[in-house]
């Protein structure tokens, strides 16, 4: 027998399915009218911090998206978690911080090293005695001791012409 499509059917009494997945169909039918069963509201108010933002009508969608410094996660049981992804900044030695702007302190008496990189720098208060060591191209080239004595690896040139280009 060929399948027929019925577009307008009125029945008084009970309709029973006998083939296909009829057991599930008959069980669902026995529950009665499903109208509104899964959508039991006509609208709800969406507020943030107590302020009315919008009304979401039945069948509407609320889309929660991550934004600047805010993360959104969806977990078990339909729980939506909003979290701050803001970074906390702190200024290290020799730096000042105002908001998210760093600047070099004008007073650098609390730093131990200053220089271009790890091969060219000055180290202050070596071994806690107030000496200063000088490094160039990765080599220790000089020490100025706390008593004023200057020790230099290599020649010292006085009255050099490199200062008069």
Oligomer: single chain
Strand content: 35-45%
- What's the main sheet like? 5 strands, antiparallel
- As laid out across the biggest beta sheet, the strand order is 7-8-9-10-11
Description:
With 165 residues, the chain is mainly beta. The chain folds into two domains: 14-86, no CATH class; 108-163. The chain has one helix and eleven strands, in the order αβββββββββββ. The protein has one helix at 22-30, and strands at 43-48, 51-57, 70-74, 80-84, 95-98, 101-104, 113-117, 120-126, 131-136, 139-144, 150-152. It has a five-stranded antiparallel beta sheet with strand order 7-8-9-10-11, with no helix packed on it. Strands 1-2 form a two-stranded antiparallel sheet. The chain has a two-stranded antiparallel ribbon with strand order 3-4. A hairpin with a 5-residue loop joins strand 3 and strand 4 (80-84). The protein starts with 21 loop residues before the first helix and ends in a 13-residue tail after the last strand.
